[in-house]
Amino acid sequence: MNSRDGWLRSPRSVVVLVLAAVCTAVVVAAAMVFLRNPGADAVRLQGEPMTDAAAAGQVVAAAEQIVRMAQLNGATGGYAFVSCKNKTEPPYQVALYMNFRLPQSNSVKYLRDIAATMVSNGWTRAATTGEHFGQKLTNDGVTAIFYGNVNDTDVGTMRLYGECRITADHRNDNPVWTEVSDQLG
């Protein structure tokens, strides 16, 4: 046994190693606290606040435009105000859920054709190119995500989200859901 092996087995060396590990952990933790951006977890307003009517109008108009230009059949849907931060706190955004009929054959191509039609009318691919199961496009502050419904192959689903610019309190909305099927087609 050489002198180095003996040093590692002494109680004093174990204490030194433990202290070194603890000091390293403290330094790393302190660096994370001080270097972390304290506002990184906060959801901020994306511009000037919008009224409920303006925010809903923006998303419903986008849905109407998509139904018209892509000639979606049997479109139905509605919207609610949802928190951008958590389940209840402002800011809020409008989330519109819409279903429409898919053709019996080649629904994947049909969904791609909807995306191509939207792109030719000013929509662009979102920063994340698509959901793992569909398309994701954006235009004038509205994001549209659409895909074939996994539970019903005859139905397509589109979710449209407005900007996080609503500061009104929607914790106690009654009703929570506003139907817009009559406006969609």
Please tell me about this protein's structure.
With 185 residues, the chain is of the alpha+beta class. It folds into two domains: 33 residues; 133 residues, Threonyl-tRNA Synthetase, Chain A, domain 2 (2-Layer Sandwich), CATH 3.30.980. Helix content is 37%, strand content 24%. The protein has five helices and seven strands; from the N terminus they run αααββαβββββα. It has a seven-stranded antiparallel β-sheet with strand order 3-4-5-6-2-1-7. A hairpin with a 6-residue loop joins strand 5 and strand 6. The radius of gyration is 26 Å and the shape is globular. The chain starts with a helix and ends with a helix. About 9% of the residues have low confidence.
Beta percentage is 15-25%
The major pleated sheet works out as:
7 strands, antiparallel
The helix/strand class is alpha+beta
Q: Alpha-carbon distance between the termini?
A: 87 Å
Specify the CATH architecture of the largest domain. 2-Layer Sandwich
Number of helices: 5
Strand line-up of the largest beta sheet: 3-4-5-6-2-1-7
| Whole-number count of domains | 2
Q: What's the average pLDDT?
A: 82
Helix content: 25-40%
Strand segment tally: 7
